[in-house]
Each structure stands twice: as C-alpha cells, then as structure tokens.
Amino acid sequence: MNVDLHCHSTASDGALAPAVLVARAFEHGVRVLALTDHDTLEGLDEARNAATALGMQLVNGVELSCTWGGATIHVLGYGFDVEAEPLVQAIAALHDGRWLRAEEISRKLALKGMPDALEGALQIQQELGDSGNAPARPHFADWMVREGFVKDRAEAFRKWLGAGKLGDVKQHWPTLEETVQTLRAAGAWVSLAHPWHYDFTRSKRRRLVADYIQAGGHAIEVVNGHQPAEQVGSLAILAREFGLLVTAGSDFHGPGGWSEIGEYRPLPDDLPPLWCRFKHDPVTAAV
Question: Which pTM does this prediction carry?
C-alpha cells in the first residue's frame, strides 16, 4: 500500500525511531504516511524531516486515549495544527496521566510479586530510545518477559496487561466526546481507531460508533493490519450504514510484530477513504 495512516515510533510504544520508521515505510512503498504515536506529538518533527528528504508526504497524526462505556478507546487525529492550544493542553494532560498510569501499573504488579516494574519498563524504553514519556504497557510486558514472569509479550497481556486485566488502568483519560472535540478544535480529521479491538458486543460497538459520530467524528478505521476479513466486512457495513469516511493502516509497532509498515488488508472498493481529503503534494511535509 502507498498510504499508511497508523503506525508508532519510539516516541510512544514503537520499536523504531521516527526517522528510521519513515525510511522503512519508504522502502516498503509508502508515499503518504501518518505517524500516530500514543498521546504525544514528539516524533513528528523528526519524521517530517526524514519524509521531506525522501519526497514523502507526512501527515500530522496522533492516537489519543479516552474512555467510553467503561473501556479505553483510541481516536486517531490527522492533519491538525500542532500548535493548537486545545490539543497542546490535552497532550500535556495525557502526558501526566500516562505517568500516573505507569506508576499505578507498577504498584499493582508489585502487589502480585513483581517489584520494580516501573524501573524495569523504563530501562526497556531507554534501550529503544527514551522519549521522555512514560513507559507503556508493551514496555512493561517486555520487562516481564526479561524477568521471567511470563514467557512472551502475548502472555503478559493475556494475564496482566490486556483489556480488563490488572494493568488496564484507564481512569486518567478524558471522555470520547472531549477527545473528539479537542481534535476538531485543532482542525483535525478524526477517525475511530480499530473499532473491533474493543471487547464489545455487536450492539455496544454500534452504540460506540453512534456516540462517536454524535461527538463529531468523521471516519472509522475499517482496516487495521492483518485483522480477519470478516471483521473488515462487519466494520465496512457500519461505515456504509452511518455514511462514514474510512481509514486504514498497518498499526506497525516494530519488525516482527502485528504487521509490517505499509501492509494491511485492502479496503472495500465502495468505501470513501479519508486520505482523499488530504492535499497530495509529495514535497509537503505536513497536511
């Protein structure tokens, strides 16, 4: 695919520095890229410089954490003003919230016989390239593997860090409506990230999409990496029903992970992709 609107660098929980990520994307044929790190814009300048040097189009991107229906939800923003005050303030609050969450995860793991998790997760993060942000759950998972508490990252999430588990701390996030409004105030195009990722019934997922639209969302992410085709089909039905634009991306975090940069299942031909609303100037660094 020559467009990838979902990927992560070491500015959040990815394994590659922003410039390295951009170079890898270029090698895999990507020409329009959105770096969507979790709750931070810190990697955008480095990514923009690398993209400009390669003649790629970098779209300002971010993946913001919020809450809805008792669950953590992720919302993607594109093409915003990085200096917009509502977004700057929201990012600062999320930065603080992520540190509070990391401390709470560490405290809970210590109660289960896994002490010093925060320090260990920070060490993992610094080995990848410290961004100054709080370590995320993948960093905790890799520390748990290193210490022998679990055999791999998948087990860490299944037992301790995944949705509904001990490490799924979400009280520090704003609401879905607040987050969509923040992105809209910054001039962003807004997409609901991986709606099938949340462990919802069909009716609850539909309510999520309806509330998201009511809040001002533009699109949903119909394709996320190599998710099963039947999930793509179900999300496509929702997009058609609600008349939404759609996005797609690899959700790349690092080599050997969920999917490779620039690789994801194709979108159904009849769905209107959000990226057609972007300016397609290959020498433009941001949209």
Answer: 0.88
Give the whole-angstrom CA distance, residue 17 versus residue 215. Answer: 33
| Identity of residue 184 | R
Structure tokens, 205: 């997922």
Which are the contacts of 145, defined by CB distance < 8 A and separation ≥ 6? 151, 152, 153, 156
Q: With contact defined as beta carbons under 8 Å apart, do 121 and 106 qualify? A: yes
Q: Output the six-digit token pair for 107.
A: 């405290």
Query: Comparing C-alpha atoms, which of 90, 97, 273, 98 is closest to residue 183?
Result: 90
Beta bridge partners, 73, equal: 66
User: Is pLDDT above 60 for 62?
Assistant: yes
Note the Cα 267 to chain centre separation in Å. 19
User: Are the beta carbons of 250 and 257 closer than 8 angstroms?
Assistant: no
Contacts of 106 by beta carbon, 8 Å cutoff, 6+ apart: 116, 117, 118, 121, 140
Per-residue pLDDT tens digits for 192-210: 999 999 989 999 999 999 9
Measured CA to CA, the distance from residue 251 to residue 7 in angstroms comes to 5
Determine the Cα–Cα distance for residues 34 and 66; give it in Å rounded to an integer.
20
The CA distance from 190 to 208, in Å, is: 15
The CA distance from 82 to 68, in Å, is 25
